[in-house]
Amino acid sequence: MSDHPILVTGATGKSGRRVVSQLRAKGLAVRAAARSTEHVFDWNDRGTWDAALEGARAAYIVQLDGTTLVRPFVEHAVKHGVKRLVLASGRGIDNPEYANDSGGALDGLLDSEAAVRESGLEWTISRPGWFAQNFSEGFFADAVRAGEVRLPGGDGAASFVDAEDIAAVVVAALTEDRHSGQIYELSGPRAVTLAEACSTISEAAGREVRYVPLSVDEYVAELVEQGLPREDAQAFADVVEPLRNGTDAYLSDGVERALGRAPRTFAEFAKTTASADGWAA
């Protein structure tokens, strides 16, 4: 088994590092690959691909947004004898009304999914919605620590999914036979508004975190004032559109189908994060 490790790309990211941790907890050999790890992997440097894939029996593919690099990477994987692929994709990519794709990510996601399905290998696709960890490690984390989340999210809600659940589904797909050919859309068990999320975090962290709803124009203007190019500011506003419109509020059964249990609640995420000082300044 140690001669044929499981490759995890994006191994320092929110899902990737949790996949690495959960695989190692099972005593499995893991090749954790990213630009800053021992096994250097860079999507933009194809010279790093072969060393990452050499001898691997399975691979978790965390793609680079806005690119179509997964298809040639999969071709390399086939040549190296990889048997199983698990792709990180995104919820809502088959819904043209889901969000404004000003960042150009959709075409890449669709091509990546097609590439793994057409590979001839065992494959599974993970389609998570909004990560709960965006409040602790990502998009909203600094605002939460500052005590005020200012977003053009309106009163919309999202069924935030815990990255630990995402990783658990990926680990199951990498290590168990029954997930081949499955597409798992992943969400939490209930839709939560930004105001509810901030209230839940406040209770868990023992300090006030306020949600301040902004219009899109107000949000873009604030980001531009902070030095962001207007085009990038508008792209950030577009990212929040599924929250504002409630298009990510629906529930998916992927966690339960893959793991045989309910997904973790946002309150459980907040309590765990606060206990680990995840919102320390």
Descriptive account of the structure:
The longest helix has 13 residues, at 163-175. The chain is built from twelve helices and eleven strands. It is α/β, with parallel strands linked by helices. Helices cover 39% and strands 16% of the residues. Strands 3-2-1-4-5-6-9 form a seven-stranded parallel β-sheet, with helices on both faces. The protein has a two-stranded parallel sheet with strand order 7-11. The protein is globular and about 50 Å long. The chain has one domain: NAD(P)-binding Rossmann-like Domain (Rossmann fold, 3-Layer(aba) Sandwich), CATH 3.40.50.720. Helix 1 packs across helix 6, helix 7 packs parallel to helix 12 (266-275) and helix 8 (216-225) crosses helix 9.
Write the layout of secondary structure elements.
Blueprint: E1 6-9, H1 16-25, E2 30-34, E3 39-40, H2 49-53, E4 58-62, H3 70-79, E5 84-88, H4 106-117, E6 122-128, H5 141-146, E7 148-151, E8 157-158, H6 163-175, E9 182-186, E10 192-193, H7 194-205, E11 210-213, H8 216-225, H9 230-239, H10 241-245, H11 254-259, H12 266-275
Parallel strand pairs: 1-2, 1-4, 2-3, 4-5, 5-6, 6-9, 7-11
Antiparallel strand pairs: 8-10
Helix pairs in contact: 1-6, 7-12, 8-9
